[in-house]
């Protein structure tokens, strides 16, 4: 009976969890994108002022509930020395968002190079 009830509870209330990586060069707008998503989809979330977002050190995790799905966004640092860590996360994630600053033409080539990084160098 317990199994049946807990199964029913899970079916009704538990959300499917998905992990999404947010990648891109430093300063591309990854943390801004995450904050905007949280503000838009989480009803009671009072977004931090966009001007207060500073460089991400390490990992910044944000959760957004959309319908029956819970999306866990992993906003990874984009600095060159951190890019080698990206592939460690691929196996764990369900999707990747790659952020490009389209107005920063000087770094477009660098962004492509980072995007093309071999998965297992
Ligand atoms: N004008 C404009 N500025 C942005 C946009 N997205 C991010 N920024 C600015 O770009 C800078 C870097 O953004 P941030 O989210 O910290 O980049 P991250 O290093 O990729 O996490 C910040 O000063 C942001 O305010 C955008 O869509 N438009
Ligand atoms: Mg950031």
From TrEMBL:
Binding site residues for GTP: 24-31, 78
Keywords: GTP-binding, Magnesium, Metal-binding, Nucleotide-binding
SUPFAM superfamilies: P-loop containing nucleoside triphosphate hydrolases
Pfam families according to UniProt: Arf
An annotated GO BP: protein localization to Golgi apparatus
Cellular compartments per GO CC: Golgi apparatus
Annotated residues for binding of Mg(2+): 31, 56
Gene3D superfamilies hit by this protein: P-loop containing nucleotide triphosphate hydrolases
GO MF, one annotated term: GTP binding
Protein name listed in UniProt: ADP-ribosylation factor-related protein 1 isoform X2
Gene: ARFRP1
């Amino acid at each position: 009976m317990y199994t049946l009830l807990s199964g029913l509870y899970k079916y009704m209330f538990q959300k499917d969890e998905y992990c999404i990586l947010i990648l891109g060069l430093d300063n591309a707008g990854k943390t801004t994108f995450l904050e905007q998503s949280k503000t838009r989809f989480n009803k009671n979330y009072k977004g931090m002022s966009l001007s207060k977002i500073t460089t991400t050190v390490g990992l910044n995790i944000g959760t957004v509930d959309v319908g029956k799905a819970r999306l866990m966004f992993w906003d990874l640092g984009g600095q060159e020395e951190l890019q080698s860590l990206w592939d460690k996360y691929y196996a764990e994630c369900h999707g990747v968002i790659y952020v490009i600053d389209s107005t920063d033409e000087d770094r477009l080539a660098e962004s492509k190079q980072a995007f093309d990084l071999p998965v297992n160098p």
